[in-house]
Amino acid sequence: MSHKFDVEEVETDVDVTQLINSVAMMKVCQGVKNYEASDLKVYPRVKKRGATWYSSDCGVIVEKGVVGNLCSSCCRLRNTIRRRRQKESTTDLSMPK
Fewest CB atoms less than 10 Å from the CB: which of 4, 33, 58, 70? Predict the structure, then answer.
């Protein structure tokens, strides 16, 4: 797991300091909030913790260089849900009553 912290081996005090600094700068994935179970039919491989949904591929740690608080897997999940909602709302608007 040290590859996530940009440290090959921990042998010296400098390595320990570098590892602590890397851990301190990491962000934890915040998951996808404000969605209902019905929103997730299109993406069934999810995990729910509390009121928050996570992709089953969530790595918990947000990758280095990513802007925001979602890992790439949860970002794809959020975008999939948004696209489906947009498609459904467009379909609802075009349906004659």
Answer: 33
Report the distance separating Cα 69 and Cα 74, nearest Å: 10
Cα angle value 32/38/41 (rounded, 5°): 85
Tell me the C-alpha to C-alpha distance, in Å, between residue 48 and each of 31, 32, 67, 84, 92.
Answer: 9, 9, 23, 19, 28
How far is residue 38's CA from residue 25's CA, in Å, rounded to a whole number? 35
pLDDT one-digit tens code per residue, 5-63: 565 677 888 888 888 887 777 888 999 887 776 666 666 678 888 888 899 999 888 87
Residue 89, token pair as written in the block:
């709302």
For strands 52-55 and 46-49, give the pairing.
antiparallel
Task: Show me where the domains of the chain are located.
Answer: 28-94
